[in-house]
Amino acid sequence: MPEPSASPDPVELLERIAFLTKENALLREKIDALARRLYGVKSEQLDPAQLHLLLQGLDGPGKAPEPVAAEVPQRSRAPSPPRSRGPRIPAHLEVVEEVLVPAPVQAAPEQWRRIGQEVTERLDYRPAKFLCLRTVRPKYVQRAVLDTVPVIAPLPPAILERSLVAPGLLAQIVVAKYCDHLPLYRQESIYWTRHQVWLPRQTMAEWMGLAAEWLKPIYEHIRREVLASGYVQVDETPIRYLAPGHGQTKLGYLWTCHRPRGDVVFHWQTSRAASCLEKIIPVDFAGTIQCDGYEAYDCFAKGRGDKIALAGCLAHVRRKFYEARETAPKVAGWFLRHFQHLYELEAQLREIHAGPKRRAAERASLSRLVLTRLHRALVRLKTARRYLPQSLMGKAIHYALNQWSALLLFLDDGRLEIDNNLVENAIRPTAVGKKNWLFIGEAEAGERSAIIYTVIESCRRRGLDPFVYLREVFTRLPSMTNWQVKDITPEAWAKHRSRVDLRATA
């Protein structure tokens, strides 16, 4: 008879049950986090009432302070629409007046005397239209001279010689794709069905490449200005591009360099490797790069020696504690409350337009105390091993401690922002665009998109109408030299418009 099998060790069973219980809890946590990311509210903003519910009756790493105002988002310089109950008729619009005379008055006007009027105003719209721009150049000869050579005015320089496209049409196609996010195939359909003008998408794609080539000197000028300050914020976003010959798409990236209170410049790369930063950041660059915790930045900075310092992003740290608020409400709520203290101070500094020295002084006296308290709590939680490393709270604690030295740089340098939100906001228009056109053409089309996005974003930050700006630029660029490019950048254009407006109102 076979010998009976040995009974399992109760200790091993208990250890196995404990392991499976922890694994099950981690898997459930990941599933809940994924469901919230897919179907939950995308905003991370919490009002004081939500924080109060997280902290109510619970003891965190320390006594929680009283509720404070919610974080104030940073805004761009572009003008925002007025807050009102409904639409209003702006005063600057052209007025088209029609006078309705009663039929009896029209029949016998001499029998009637006008004693007043009633005026009704409505907001109307006339759709854009195509037109034929015909340039006529008369030829002349001198009357008193025999065998004279005829004279004729030269054609002004054009974006493309002997081409159908004029500056206004080229500006419209660019703005429609990169501002209004209309793919070229949709533009093709709109122009034909509404205007009976046939513009094949292949032709418009060629014109788009032409536009990028003409805008490249302006792009290079903006790029140099962004990197000249010695402080940039960097982030990247994935965009699919078409792989020729395979009928499939590959993943490329738009890398974004942003100078706070300045411009943003996009760079196209086909990967996310640290080597991409070597092409984006010049060799002679020395200063601070603010970024998230992606290891490519650290690898790149180490390769440049002591020339580059990496500043951290508190928003990324805050985001991980926000994601852990459901599984660890008391600890997450405690950390989120302290993050709000930091953001409340930043909002106050923005409101009074504080300069770098004032910001550094206020942060040294107030923000440093909050961060010191946060660091003590993080170390205590890490040492106690209260949370599993793979849990959401465990990951949040590890990420925060790993980024801590980089997070503290903004305390002593008033130029630095507390987070990377400004550069993430600059990426948003590209995110809206790729939802419409799904992918760009070949890899070279990515570089063209980077150039055009840079110029468009520069216009948006200054409240400029990109169509008006690009139409003027495409008209003037063919007759300009590279030395004159600085006079037609969006920044220079906005300053010129401001001077013109001041003289008009004087």
Provide an overview of this structure:
This protein has 506 residues and is α/β, with parallel strands linked by helices. The protein has a domain at 322-412. It is built from 18 helices and eight strands. Strand 6, helix 8 (295-303) and strand 7 form a beta-alpha-beta unit. The longest helix is centred in the first third of the chain and has 30 residues, at 10-39. The radius of gyration is 31 Å and the shape is globular.
Task: Give the beta-strand count.
Answer: 8
- In terms of per-residue confidence, which ranges show pLDDT below 50 for 5 or more consecutive residues? 57-76
Radius of gyration: 31 Å
* Average predicted confidence as pLDDT: 84
Would you tell me the structural class of the helices and strands?
alpha/beta
Number of contiguous helices: 18
Spell the H/E element sequence.
HHHEEHHHEEEHEHEHHHHHHHEHHH
Strand content: 5-15%
Oligomer: single chain
Overall geometric form: globular
Main sheet specs: 6 strands, mixed
Distance between the termini: 112 Å
Helix content: 40-55%
In short:
50% of the residues lie in helices and 9% in strands.
Task: Supply the key terms.
506 residues, alpha/beta, six-stranded mixed sheet, 18 helices, 8 strands, 9% strand
